[in-house]
Amino acid sequence: MHASPFAANLVVPAELMASSERALPLAVLLQRSPARWQLLLAWLLSLAAGLWLAAVELYAGWYGYSVRFGELDFVISIYPPLTIATLWVLWFGYAWGASLAYLSTLLVAYLSGLPLGWALLFACSNPLGLLVLSLVYRHVKVRYVPSSLPAALFFVTICFISAVSSATGSFIWSYSNKLSAMGAFAVWQGWWSGNFLQTVLTCGPLLLLATPAVLRWREQRWPQRAAAAPAQRWVGLVAVFALCGVLGFLWLSFWLADRSVAAQVGDTAQAWQQRAMLYRDSAMAVYWVLSVLLFALVFLGYRFFRQRTLQLQQAAQSVAFERDWALQRQQEAEQAHHALQTLNRELAVRMAEVEQLQQQLQEQAQRDPLTRLYNRRYLHERLPVELQHAGHLGQSLCLVLIDLDHFKAVNDQYGHAMGDAVLKSLAALFAGRLRSADFAVRYGGEEFCLVLPGCDIAGAAACVAELQQAYAACRVAGDNGALQDLRFSAGIACYPQHGCDEEALLREADAALYQAKAAGRNCVRYRD
Ligand SMILES: Nc1nc2c(ncn2[C@@H]2O[C@H](COP(=O)(O)OP(=O)(O)OP(=O)(O)O)[C@@H](O)[C@H]2O)c(=O)[nH]1
């Protein structure tokens, strides 16, 4: 039995392995197992660590590195809870990391004096950026561990898109803190660049170092089923999302720069100078963002078409494999068919041989070997059938017993060979003179029996008389001389008048034969 191996042939190349493991649902916390407490404890410790680090920053009054970008001073903000939340998103799923990011940001914002309403809104910014990250990694087949160059480049790209997405929070911050447009622009630039650099520089190494151990720990407690096939439409969605984000980024960059100068300085020459400088600085930022975007789109497109190409190649391979497999099966079937035909032919030959042997055996069982006449067994088989047939047709049937006269003397005088020859010559006479419906049987040593269906006594007597004449005319030659004028006596019994069965008829014919012998031989007798 051949199993189609084409399914086994569909091996996904290593580089197309599912990028992120399937998310661990929050519902695992409801399962009755010690592992849920470990997980909850780990999550709470992560939250506490993030909050503690954020609080340290808050009270130390240090939010990141100050840099000068052209004429603009801004702080590349560092926000520790973001690193922890990103790792939770990638290792355990969006819900774990997003909830952690939201709660820590909410607390930090509230502690730093933001009104609760604004804080609740503001805390959505990082989960928004993480959503982009999570969506991309769940639906594009790239490993999130940056262990190879493509994976690392993809990681940097996605971190950038995620950072730009989450930087929307900077406007809420600026607005709620009543910062000028110029200040908002600086906060925003610092937010996304800090977010981006922090994620790449802290999460990247941590993912490389700790992912195997974390996943082993997770796998032991919550073994995963096979990852679902990624939906290709998400690739397009993510690309559109990124494009919209960056186009928004460009528009905001110029709008803020323009507004800041127009609002603060007015339409003077100094204002125009400041405006030109801001445009130049923004253009630089735009240049870098566009470069990254271009790279991201090219990379995403490359990955997408590579995946599609590989899938097509695999499909073509499996079709070719399936076709070869089917051809092979067909060849095997043809070979089997030929072998079967040869066997059938051999079987037919053997069957014919067996039939021939059976016929020979049957002949041997029914014939006398010396005279080739039927034997007594045949008479017992055939006579009842002939009697039944005669009864159906209302016809008569004669049975004649023949015994050679003085045959012993032949043997004694000329030898057994001559005796055999005499027996054979009489048998030949029967074969030549009887009708096709009649048959002759060698009944005993020198005794013969004739069965003549449809024949009455007169007909039988005439037949016997002809045979006696012919026999007398026979000349049988042997080594010791030749014999002529051979004689036999006969007794006739006729169905139905002398009997209706084999035994009665044989008895009657034997009695008649006895009478013929008694009457001097070379004659025929029957009862009228
Ligand atoms: N050569 C030869 N002789 C046979 C065969 N079967 C029987 N005999 C001989 O046939 C002879 C029969 O002799 P008997 O029964 O005395 O009969 P008979 O000499 O013909 O005398 P009647 O029948 O009275 O005329 C015996 O000598 C048998 O040996 C045979 O197959 N071949």
TrEMBL record:
<feature type="transmembrane region" description="Helical">
    <location>
        <begin position="285"/>
        <end position="305"/>
    </location>
</feature>
<feature type="domain" description="GGDEF">
    <location>
        <begin position="395"/>
        <end position="528"/>
    </location>
</feature>
<feature type="coiled-coil region">
    <location>
        <begin position="340"/>
        <end position="367"/>
    </location>
</feature>
<keyword id="KW-0175">Coiled coil</keyword>
<protein>
    <recommendedName>
        <fullName>diguanylate cyclase</fullName>
        <ecNumber>2.7.7.65</ecNumber>
    </recommendedName>
</protein>
<feature type="transmembrane region" description="Helical">
    <location>
        <begin position="235"/>
        <end position="257"/>
    </location>
</feature>
<keyword id="KW-1133">Transmembrane helix</keyword>
<dbReference type="Pfam" id="PF00990">
    <property type="entry name" value="GGDEF"/>
</dbReference>
<keyword id="KW-0812">Transmembrane</keyword>
<keyword id="KW-0472">Membrane</keyword>
<dbReference type="GO" id="GO:0052621">
    <property type="term" value="F:diguanylate cyclase activity"/>
</dbReference>
<feature type="transmembrane region" description="Helical">
    <location>
        <begin position="116"/>
        <end position="137"/>
    </location>
</feature>
<dbReference type="InterPro" id="IPR029787">
    <property type="entry name" value="Nucleotide_cyclase"/>
</dbReference>
<dbReference type="InterPro" id="IPR050469">
    <property type="entry name" value="Diguanylate_Cyclase"/>
</dbReference>
<feature type="transmembrane region" description="Helical">
    <location>
        <begin position="40"/>
        <end position="62"/>
    </location>
</feature>
<keyword id="KW-0808">Transferase</keyword>
<dbReference type="InterPro" id="IPR043128">
    <property type="entry name" value="Rev_trsase/Diguanyl_cyclase"/>
</dbReference>
<keyword id="KW-0548">Nucleotidyltransferase</keyword>
<feature type="transmembrane region" description="Helical">
    <location>
        <begin position="196"/>
        <end position="215"/>
    </location>
</feature>
<dbReference type="InterPro" id="IPR000160">
    <property type="entry name" value="GGDEF_dom"/>
</dbReference>
<feature type="transmembrane region" description="Helical">
    <location>
        <begin position="149"/>
        <end position="176"/>
    </location>
</feature>
<feature type="transmembrane region" description="Helical">
    <location>
        <begin position="74"/>
        <end position="96"/>
    </location>
</feature>
